[in-house]
């Protein structure tokens, strides 16, 4: 098969995997309504948690993470052709295509063709991709996310800062701590692009955070400020 055609098929395949509307399927199949008509109207797991409870929310979260992971893993299993362009990175062709597949899956989740090109915010699918690409950075970002959500109750704030934390952590480890990261000067750009996509998908949340109108997930906020009487 022509290398360019093969790469295009992988991009489309990864996009379609990411585009599977997990939240929409769960809401219609098990609850009889469209999740886009409830709560915030978003198809992410946070809205599912709020509207349909923790079991449905957890199921959607796992499914969305799996989409990113599967998109990357499938490339490793079935990529058997040369690149359609010169690979100037220190990575093997398979790894470069995996990164491309990962971004395609995240775009598919955010702009799902199966849901009118409206999907979730991409944080869970990005997590699935990053588990395979940057596990150390993921661990740090998850810790930051948990800390922010538990203290503020804002899932969107945790997601935005976690997205920024991933490339920042890699840059800190490599440039400050002196950790040798294979292909750093390639993968750091991938992480910046992926983080930028996720942050852009949260632009409406960011506006509400700045205006003080963003909804809190109070059930997850363990440390609450008590008003003085």
Describe the structure.
The protein is 68% helix and 0% strand. By secondary structure, it is mainly α. The protein has one domain (3-220). The longest helix is centred in the N-terminal third of the chain and has 25 residues, at 54-78. 42% of the residues are buried. The mean pLDDT is 89.
What's the layout of helices and strands?
Layout: H1 3-19, H2 22-31, H3 45-52, H4 54-78, H5 93-110, H6 123-133, H7 135-152, H8 155-175, H9 184-201, H10 203-211
Helix pairs in contact: 1-4, 1-5, 2-4, 3-4, 4-5, 4-6, 5-6, 5-9, 6-7, 7-8, 8-9
Tell me the number of structural domains.
1
Number of helical runs?
A: 10
- Strand proportion, as a percent range, falls in under 5%
What is the 3D shape? globular
Radius of gyration: 19 Å
- Going by helix content, strand content and strand pairing, the class is mainly alpha
Give helix and strand order, one letter per element, not per position.
HHHHHHHHHH
Uncertain segments: none
State the end-to-end CA separation.
73 Å
Helix content: 55-70%
Features:
single chain; 229 residues; mainly alpha; 10 helices
Short description:
With 229 residues, the protein is mainly α. The protein has helices spanning 3-19, 22-31, 45-52, 54-78, 93-110, 123-133, 135-152, 155-175, 184-201, 203-211.
